[in-house]
Design a protein that fits this description.
The protein has about 350 residues and is α/β, with parallel strands linked by helices. The chain contains 15 helices and nine strands. β3, α1 and β4 form a beta-alpha-beta unit.
Length: about 350
């Protein structure tokens, strides 16, 4: 049986989450969490595959994105609030637990669910962004920078310089993206370049350049058909044009709050459930193969599986077959009982499909 993807939304007293769903309602639950500056659409290659393998697959538009609620204060995009959004979504689905899969900023979200609410987490998988029990913030990222590639006198925080640009020049960063959103989407969603490995990421010099694309608007480049179609480009452009970049960029504006939240993790931040991490071989920002970025995760995850995918940062879209294969193999090896046992679910989910 082939399953189609349907649109839904759930509204609580504090937040509305729109989401895509695919698969039988009573099947074991997988929730896919996107990052910056994406949408639930980013998981379009995963939802039907895992639905056809017997799972109920959910992909929300995260806070500030798509058809979900947006907010006008930076502090409304702190991890503690975003985790609550996801727990409310889980409850609206009539479930107590799920396998959580995250990419980019979705990684810290699923890691925080695992560390703060392990009872809600059967297993956790992250694409590109490894687990940092102390919190995903420049203060914790900088000590893990590969100083052979990023000498401290030239690159004080290495490839994470762009995050300080948000903190120091938020309006400039936002306006730089909003000047031509369609061009930004085309420039961002590109496959990884093996030749860029071992070279400093351009994100290490954003402050010096005066912006992601220098001081002007993003230049026009051809769409990369290996990552997004013309229809995908239209969808990303429409959503980001409608909502703007204030919400997406504000995820970067809560470093101290997110670090404080990390200190409230259970079990000292140690994770005991099965964990899967997918390294992007050609991801030069979340570079985990030569730097020490993945070392804290190895220390703090008791049941860790690691797989290298020959991909850049947009892994689920660039290399969907490899990503799906790695997820399926991990589920079969580490969570076989969950796959086989379909828990009961309530007959309705949130509001009627949109």
């Amino acid at each position: 049986m082939k399953h189609s993807i349907t649109q839904h939304s759930f509204t609580s007293s504090r937040h509305t989450t729109a989401y895509l769903a695919c698969g039988a309602k009573a099947a074991p639950l997988m929730i896919f969490v996107h990052g910056w500056p994406e949408l639930s659409l980013s998981w379009r290659h995963q939802l039907p595959v895992f639905a056809n393998l017997g799972f109920r697959c959910i992909a929300p538009d995260m806070r500030g994105y798509g058809r979900s609620s947006t907010y006008q204060r930076h502090e409304d995009y702190a991890q503690s609030l975003i985790v609550t959004d996801m727990l409310e979504l889980l409850a609206s689905l009539g479930r107590e637990r799920a396998v959580w899969i995250g990419h980019d900023w979705g990684g810290p979200v699923v890691w925080n669910i695992a560390s703060h609410h392990p009872e809600a987490c059967v297993g956790v998988a992250s694409l590109c962004v490894p687990y940092l029990a102390d919190g995903f913030s420049v203060v914790n990222l900088a000590p893990l920078v590969d100083r052979r590639l990023y000498p401290e006198n030239r690159y004080p925080v290495g490839q994470w310089d762009y995050q300080l640009f948000y903190e120091e020049s938020f309006d400039t960063a936002r306006k730089g993206f909003e000047a031509n959103i369609r061009n930004v989407v085309k420039a961002l969603f590109r496959k990884g370049d093996p030749n860029a490995v071992g070279q400093p990421s351009r994100l290490a010099s954003v402050r010096q350049a005066g912006g992601w694309f220098g001081a002007g608007a993003c230049p026009d480049v051809p769409r990369d058909p290996d990552v997004i179609t013309e229809a995908d480009l239209d969808a990303y452009t429409e959503a980001l044009t409608r909502n703007g970049f204030f919400g997406p960029d504000s995820w970067y504006m809560n470093g101290p709050a997110n670090v404080a939240y990390a200190r409230t993790s259970k079990n000292g931040g140690k994770l005991s459930m099965p964990v899967l991490f997918l390294h992007g071989a050609y991801d030069t920002t979340c570079e985990t193969l030569q730097s020490a970025l993945a070392e804290p995760m190895r220390r703090d995850c008791a049941d860790l599986t690691e797989v290298v995918v020959r991909s850049g940062h947009w892994m689920a879209q660039e290399q969907p077959v490899a990503v799906n294969a790695a997820l399926a193999k991990w589920l079969a090896a580490r969570l076989p009982a969950y796959w086989e046992d379909a828990p009961s679910a309530r007959p309705s989910e949130g509001n009627p499909p949109a």
